[in-house]
Specification:
Largest sheet: 5 strands, antiparallel
Structural class: alpha+beta
Number of strands: 10
InterPro entries: CHK_kinase-like, EcKL, Kinase-like_dom_sf
Shape: globular
Number of domains: 2
Oligomer: single chain
Strand order of the largest sheet: 1-2-3-5-4
Domain CHK kinase-like: 158-344
CATH architecture of the largest domain: Alpha-Beta Complex
Radius of gyration: 22 Å
């Protein structure tokens, strides 16, 4: 990934020119020459979060052959007025946007270096010059070529591969994920969690100490009033949608403190996405069969237990059938992928995390996913499936 000091940040789509794109790509693609850029225009206005996603194709040559790259540039203007989510302060959004830049520029290269190291260790090269790149068809996130923020102009940019041109898409109308789609999403989380754990072992210190920009409880405490307001408002909407729900259940929901989802814990921790809901999961299909998943919008990674991501994934994306009948199989798949990511040579930390411990932690941490679902009730309306999931969680004695 090119460094911020080398490359200017575009102020608009008009600045996405061949010379600029060549600078962006040449570190990852040495010898590239970009001769033309076709800017397609904005494919997303970021739902009012100060960003536009500009799609463009870059044409040129590398190693004597013609090349074409389908890319997107996520441009953020911190002076841009917010158009939605008036409950959240602009400072909170600015923090999230700059954090995503830090994640791609600082954490991702180190996570991928761990992946490459594992790939090399597990392979048997034919000769010393043979390369062992990470399996790019199974990475948990899109490839990012450049991410930077200019504190003077208050602009930021992330240049990434265009997943849409590769066949990836977000499920329309916020439909729940089916069993196989959930398998893919948990597999992506398992790779993130496993690699972050290996990186932590390599560094010899917790990731929230290595990366002082990771969102912490202090960041969320700054938005405590907004989070509490949204949660309590959503509980009332839920009670109105299901007037026959037991008064006791509604009372239990009202008594929950939404800030518990950001509290400290003594459980083992990994780098969590924390926003793994339907809008941030892109899936690729072969016909009707899902074959790959990518996680996008890395604006709030935190150092938390892996079940924080998993409970949010289930409560915000699964139907009642998947939650009730396929949960154990999906968690077993996650556990297998987690162990596979860490490899046979690792013997400490998460390597000793058993499937039964994972299932127990999932139940214990389910309130984390439940509160996150209520915070998103405006975009993920209350449903009969959600009610049945809440009732099952109540039966566990957690709620």
């Amino acid at each position: 990934m090119a460094t911020a000091s080398e490359i200017a940040i575009p102020q608009s789509a008009a600045d996405i020119a061949p010379s600029w794109v060549q600078q962006v790509l040449q570190k990852d693609l040495p010898g590239i020459t970009i001769t033309d850029v076709d800017v397609k225009g904005s494919i997303s206005e970021g739902e009012g979060f100060m960003s536009s996603i500009i799609a463009f194709d870059a044409m040129g040559t590398r190693n004597g052959t013609t090349q074409r790259y389908s890319l997107v540039a996520k441009l953020t203007d911190f002076a841009r007025p917010l158009t939605v989510t008036e409950e959240w302060s602009k400072d909170f959004h600015i923090r999230a946007e700059t954090l995503e830049v830090k994640f791609y520029s600082d954490a991702v290269p180190e996570l991928l270096s761990v992946l490459i190291s594992n790939t090399e260790r597990e392979s048997t090269p034919m000769n010393e010059d043979e390369e062992n790149p990470p399996p790019t068809d199974s990475l948990f996130l899109p490839k990012c070529y450049f991410a930077a923020t200019d504190p003077n102009s208050m602009l930021s940019v992330r240049v990434m591969e265009n997943l849409k041109t590769q066949g990836f898409s977000i499920k329309p109308d916020r439909q729940p994920l089916d069993r196989e789609e959930m398998m893919l999403a948990t597999g992506a989380l398992a790779q993130l969690h496993g690699l972050s754990h290996l990186l932590e072992l390599r560094l010899g210190k917790p990731l929230d100490e290595q990366y002082d920009w990771i969102m912490t409880s202090k960041d969320t405490l700054a938005a405590k009033d907004e989070i509490t307001h949204v949660y309590q408002k959503s509980v009332k909407e839920f009670a109105t949608a299901f007037p026959d729900v037991q008064t006791d259940l509604v009372a239990r929901l009202e008594k929950l403190d939404p800030m518990i989802i950001f509290g400290e814990t003594s459980k083992r921790k990994v780098l969590c996405h924390t926003e793994c809901w339907i809008n941030n999961i892109m899936i690729k299909y072969d016909g009707d069969r899902p074959i790959a998943a990518r996680l996008v919008d890395w604006q709030s990674p935190m150092h938390k237990p892996p079940t924080y991501d998993l409970t949010l994934l289930f409560l915000c994306n699964a139907s009642w059938d998947v939650f009730h009948n396929h949960r154990d199989a999906i968690l077993a798949h996650y556990h297998h992928k987690l162990q596979e990511t860490m490899g046979p040579n690792e013997s400490s930390g998460l390597k000793s995390y058993t499937l039964e411990q994972l299932k127990a932690d999932f139940r214990a941490d389910c309130l984390h996913g439940l509160i996150n679902r209520f915070i998103r009730l405006a975009v993920l309306p209350a449903s009969a499936d959600l009610l049945r999931m809440i009732q099952e969680i109540q039966e566990w004695g957690v709620l």
